[in-house]
């Protein structure tokens, strides 16, 4: 397996993938359009055009003296084109992993969120995600007091919207565009946290039928900080559910919070009634914990498959 870079055919954003993902359909993290990961294209130098044939001189009555051959020009020194994009500035954040990150765990998402807070927390490097005309601003460079929008991954960027900051720290941490959990974080979890920042429904996507999620790019700076708080709380809740489910209590099922709610009793041993809202919230947390465990198992299976492929290739060689 080897990583390569390619551009989105819709928005021309630069991203990375591995050869095993060729042909896979993904959502572009920048424009959200459905695209297929293309095969890497080798960059070849254009063949030199043959020199135009010289016109034959017209016959003269007397034989012309042959012209001396011009001295061969000294060959120019070969130039190696720099085709790689410049690496994004890390603003002092040391990469967590040297290799490409193929899966985002809940703990890793918390670290990404806290690093976004380090970038935009004091507001000095934050820029609103949409300008007055409604145009999307992912990252920008300040010139004369005005923000000049730049494409994602531009190394000269100094200011970031909340989405731009997430894309930036993912690039610094070598997170692949096809990484498990990346699309869900950008397209579902962050908009859910934006709802919470606006006081709409709360995390978990509890919206009215037909109601769209809040666009994180429309949030002001204070609301962006609330979004980060809501994300960290949501991920910590998932970790709590996972820990509770992984540690069965004495005489109780490993379903944890759900069983606790259904079997809670008062001091006299009488069953305590529960509200429908409490049951719904507890079911949601239990399902989120189960989904988290499934994602962990899928990541483990993917790792085993990669190891088997490496062993198979090594045996064939």
User: What portion of the residues fall into strands of 2 or more residues?
Assistant: 5-15%
What strand line-up does the widest sheet have?
7-6-8
- H-E order: EEEEEHEEEHEHHHH
Main sheet: strands, sense, barrel: 3 strands, antiparallel
Whole-number radius of gyration?
Answer: 29 Å
List the domain count as a whole number: 2
**How far is it from the N-terminal to the C-terminal residue, by CA?**
15 Å
Using the alpha-carbon principal axes, give the shape: flat
Mean pLDDT over the residues: 75
> Percent range for helical residues?
25-40%
* Poorly predicted sequence stretches spanning 5 or more consecutive residues: 51-55, 68-87, 249-254
Query: How many strand units?
Result: 9
* Class of secondary structure makeup: alpha+beta
In short:
This protein is α+β, with helices and mostly antiparallel strands and 317 residues long. It contains 6 helices and 9 strands; from the N terminus they run βββββαβββαβαααα.
């Amino acid at each position: 397996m080897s990583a390569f870079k390619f551009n989105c055919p819709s928005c021309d954003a630069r991203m990375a993938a591995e050869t095993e993902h060729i042909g896979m359909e993904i959502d572009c993290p920048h424009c959200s359009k459905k695209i297929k990961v293309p095969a890497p294209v080798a960059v070849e130098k254009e063949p030199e055009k043959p020199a135009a044939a010289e016109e034959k001189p017209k016959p003269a009555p007397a034989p012309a003296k042959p012209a001396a051959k011009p001295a061969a020009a000294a060959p120019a020194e070969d130039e190696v084109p720099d085709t790689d994009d410049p690496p994004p500035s890390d603003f002092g954040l040391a990469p967590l992993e040297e290799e490409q990150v193929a899966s985002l765990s809940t703990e890793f998402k918390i670290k990404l969120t806290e690093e976004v807070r380090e970038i935009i927390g004091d507001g000095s490097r934050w820029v609103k995600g949409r300008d007055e005309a409604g145009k999307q601003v992912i990252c920008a460079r300040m010139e004369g007091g005005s923000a000049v929008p730049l494409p994602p991954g531009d190394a000269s960027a100094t200011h970031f919207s909340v989405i731009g900051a997430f894309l930036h720290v993912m690039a610094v941490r070598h997170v692949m565009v096809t990484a498990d959990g990346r699309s869900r974080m950008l397209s579902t979890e962050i908009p859910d946290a934006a709802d919470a920042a606006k006081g709409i429904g709360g995390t978990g996507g509890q919206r009215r039928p037909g109601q769209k999620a809040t666009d994180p790019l429309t949030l002001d700076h204070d609301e962006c900080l609330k979004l980060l708080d809501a994300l960290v709380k949501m991920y910590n809740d998932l970790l709590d559910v996972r820990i509770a489910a992984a540690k069965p209590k004495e005489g109780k099922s490993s379903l944890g919070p759900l069983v606790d709610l259904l079997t809670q009793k008062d001091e006299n041993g009488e069953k305590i009634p529960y509200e429908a809202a409490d049951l719904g919230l507890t079911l949601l947390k239990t399902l989120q914990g189960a989904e988290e465990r499934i994602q962990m198992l899928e990541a483990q299976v993917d790792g085993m498959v990669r190891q088997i492929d490496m062993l198979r290739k090594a045996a064939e060689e």
